[in-house]
Design brief:
Length: 69
Amino acid sequence: MQRITRYPLLIRQILTHTPQDPESEFIAVQRSLEEVENITGAVNESVRAAEGDERLRVLSEDLWIGGEG
């Protein structure tokens, strides 16, 4: 997870050093940054959901419902 979160930072650095002239790859690098930010956001949401599911599982183990426990 730590490496994934570094990619947007690295691509932003590349973007600052990429010339903005028509022949450069500035647009491609910019699109790459957008995509990696989308991917990072999706990964973060998945991690949050998994953590929430785990928390609910732990809490449900402590609940006593009905006569069987």
